[in-house]
Specification:
272 residues; mainly alpha; 2 domains; two-stranded antiparallel sheet
């Protein structure tokens, strides 16, 4: 009952905050000291706190730790929103919130619709717990990178077609700053993804078991794509559309690794 209440309240705050952002317009919150920016971040922080309580209640329950599709999706979006909200204190990335807040509300609604409270993976060992935490952080950061690359693509398109005053562009940093931030996020996510793969190979008894092979394969593909992207950036100066395509390609592979395998096992095959 408590989880349902906090989930509904989080959805309401997320949607109201997103509507407030649309109403005031992106340029109004470009400076962090702006009162409207403070109001936006306050609404987002309340939604995030309620989201966190919901995520904790879904993942940790009396039966153990629930690592099924919807609870983990709620947890990942909580981490993503927390990182983006924290970054907005020093760097204006408010446009990302217009994508993330409705997405979080949608995932919370879907989670409430699909009751997974009876599923539980039991208690995890310390080593597997480390692997799971690293994986969640890597997925979260690379999700932020994917969303940021979409905004970067939009920014490129609008500037190319001479529409610099569009709604979203008003709340975004300059193009060069956006690219710099993108690669900072990718580098951090890549390091965490590398550590996640290493701990997986070290601590999981059979990482190529039937129910893990799909996840392992696409995680390695994603790692390789991000590695090529970072090499291209360092050695060949990749930027713009090339960087965007490789970022989105790596994220799609990562999404297939986790959400794809979870969806097939739990929804299609009903093996969750």
């Amino acid at each position: 009952m408590v989880i349902t209440i906090t989930a509904v309240a989080a959805m309401a705050f997320y949607l109201c905050t997103a509507l407030y952002h649309v109403w005031i317009g992106a340029p109004a919150v470009k400076k962090a000291e702006n009162k409207k920016a403070v109001a936006l971040l306050t609404g987002g922080a309340i939604a995030l706190a309620l989201h966190g309580v919901t995520a904790f209640g879904l993942v940790f329950n009396a039966n153990g730790i629930n690592l099924s599709l919807w609870p983990i999706s709620v947890l990942i979006l909580f981490v993503v929103n927390a990182l983006v909200l924290a970054s907005n204190i020093n760097r204006p990335l408010y446009s990302l919130l217009l994508l993330l807040f409705p997405a979080a509300a949608l995932v919370l609604a879907l989670t409430m619709a699909f009751d997974t409270s009876g599923r539980s993976g039991g208690h995890l060992s310390f080593t597997i717990g480390v692997h799971v935490v690293l994986s969640l952080l890597a997925y979260s950061l690379l999700t932020i990178a994917a969303l940021q690359s979409l905004l970067l693509a939009y920014q490129h398109y609008q500037l190319k077609h001479h529409h610099p005053g569009s709604f979203l562009l008003g709340g975004m940093p300059p193009l060069q700053t956006m690219e710099l931030l993108l690669f900072q996020v990718i580098w951090t996510g890549f390091v965490l993804l590398t550590l996640s793969l290493i701990t997986g190979f070290l601590f999981i008894e059979d990482i190529w078991a039937q129910h893990l092979a799909h996840k392992t394969f696409f995680s390695i593909v994603a790692w390789a794509m991000f590695a090529v992207l970072l090499w291209g950036r360092h050695s060949l100066g990749w930027r713009g559309n090339t960087a965007i395509r490789w970022t989105l390609g790596g994220f799609v592979s990562l999404a297939l690794a986790y959400w794809g395998s979870k969806f097939v096992l739990e929804v299609v095959l009903g093996l969750g």
